[in-house]
């Protein structure tokens, strides 16, 4: 059976190894906010435990007052670093940390040298650590609730769940330590390490390693999600790009082939977009694309797929929607866009859109073929005066399905 000093030293080594692992991770991902403070937090806690392990070999001021100060500061920095990592405001958190650490350090010194009482010191240390750990736990729960998945881009949360689990375990360990040790009959001169429960240090070893690697997993998942967003999203409008649309659309079509559902596709092109650029400038053109990307998909279902696949060309796939339903959606989009005005300073231009739609089921569910059919319908809508919605059947039958609302186009 290991003695308490050995377990303290083992806990120190776990902090050292975790610090090394986090440092290597930070060296490769320096752009992650808060990661440096997290690394520093583990380093401070390692130094604090080293001083505690040297109790009796170095001055008591170092092994008690300084050691606890370093440990408290380490847990406080962990709270700040995790909050920064999830881009949460840290000014209030920093104030809490400074006050909690300072008060805790002063009280530890008081009850170590002025009024020596080990049980009170244990209560103070456990309370300070529990406060900072609980604060970090609350910040991570807020991050979990605040995070909204980007359309079409799945963001794994395993690392965040692990961090929450590790912080929760650490909080319970500290509460257990305070309650257990406070009830023990300890002489004031009892050594801090000897007063420790071996179970506590075994739990601490587990939590230290779990927290470190959970942070590594969490930051890696965030980086991968960001890379996927960059690869899948149109940077100007924030909607899916063509690559992401193709991948998501093929999944929808595969499901529809098996279930026999209808799938409709709307191909949309902003009318006379070049004139908007020429009249109001390219900045207004960019703004027109952003506005369209907000107006066109408004009110759509979660399973619908909206993407920008060309300069001023957008597409909307409607799973489990037949042609009649697609016509309703297309007309609604056409009307809302026609009611939209793009402004640049004191100048403005009304924006309209032409739409080609196609609805298929069964063997006709081929993405390239559906896009080609929708493109032909879109071309016909343009040729017939713009600000219209035409279907594949309208083109083949020679009759217009769409209608203009009478709004003037951009010219």
What can you see in these coordinates?
By secondary structure, this protein is an alpha+beta fold. The chain is 65% helix and 9% strand. It contains 14 helices and seven strands. The strands form two sheets. The chain has a five-stranded mixed sheet with strand order 2-3-1-6-7, sandwiched between helices. Strands 4-5 form a two-stranded antiparallel ribbon. A hairpin with a 4-residue loop joins strand 2 (305-308) and strand 3. Helix 1 packs antiparallel against helix 2 (35-53), helix 3 packs antiparallel against helix 4 and helix 5 (118-146) packs antiparallel against helix 6. The chain is elongated and about 95 Å long. 44% of the residues are buried.
Question: What are its keywords?
Answer:
411 residues, five-stranded mixed sheet, two-stranded antiparallel sheet, 9% strand, elongated
């Amino acid at each position: 059976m290991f003695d308490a000093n050995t377990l303290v030293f083992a806990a120190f080594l776990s902090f050292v190894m975790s610090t090394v692992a986090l440092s290597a991770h930070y060296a490769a991902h320096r752009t992650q906010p808060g990661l440096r403070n997290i690394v520093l937090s583990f380093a401070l806690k390692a130094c604090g435990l080293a001083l505690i392990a040297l109790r009796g070999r170095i001055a008591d001021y170092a092994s008690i007052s300084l050691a606890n100060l370093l440990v408290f500061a380490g847990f406080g920095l962990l709270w700040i670093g995790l909050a920064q990592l999830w881009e949460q405001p840290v000014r209030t958190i920093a104030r809490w940390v400074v006050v909690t650490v300072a008060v805790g350090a002063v009280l530890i010194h008081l009850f170590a040298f002025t009024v020596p009482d080990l049980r009170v010191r244990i209560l103070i240390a456990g309370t300070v650590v529990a406060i900072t750990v609980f604060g970090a736990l609350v910040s991570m729960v807020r991050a979990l609730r605040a995070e909204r998945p980007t359309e079409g881009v799945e963001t794994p949360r395993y690392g965040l769940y692990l961090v929450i689990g590790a912080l929760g375990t650490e909080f319970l360990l500290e509460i257990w330590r305070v309650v257990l040790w406070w009830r023990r009959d300890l002489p004031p001169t009892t050594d801090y390490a000897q007063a420790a429960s071996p179970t506590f240090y075994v739990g601490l070893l587990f939590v230290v390693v779990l927290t470190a690697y959970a942070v590594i997993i969490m930051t890696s998942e965030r980086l991968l999600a960001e890379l996927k967003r960059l690869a899948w999203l149109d940077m100007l409008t924030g909607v899916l790009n063509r690559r992401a649309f193709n991948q998501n659309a093929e999944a929808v079509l595969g499901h529809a082939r098996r279930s026999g559902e209808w799938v409709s596709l709307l191909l949309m092109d902003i009318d006379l977009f070049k004139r908007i650029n020429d009249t109001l400038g390219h900045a207004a053109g960019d703004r027109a694309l952003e506005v369209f990307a907000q107006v066109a998909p408004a009110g759509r279902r979660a399973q619908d797929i909206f993407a920008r696949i060309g300069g001023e060309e957008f597409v909307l796939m409607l799973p489990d929607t037949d042609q009649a339903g697609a016509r309703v959606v297309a007309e609604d989009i056409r009307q809302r866009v026609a009611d939209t005005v793009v402004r640049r300073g004191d100048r403005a231009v009304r924006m309209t859109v032409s739409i080609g739609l196609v609805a298929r089921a069964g063997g006709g569910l081929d993405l390239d073929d559906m896009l080609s059919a929708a493109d032909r319908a879109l071309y016909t809508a343009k040729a017939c005066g713009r600000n219209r919605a035409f279907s594949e059947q309208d083109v083949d039958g020679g009759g217009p399905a769409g209608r203009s609302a009478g709004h003037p186009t951009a010219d």
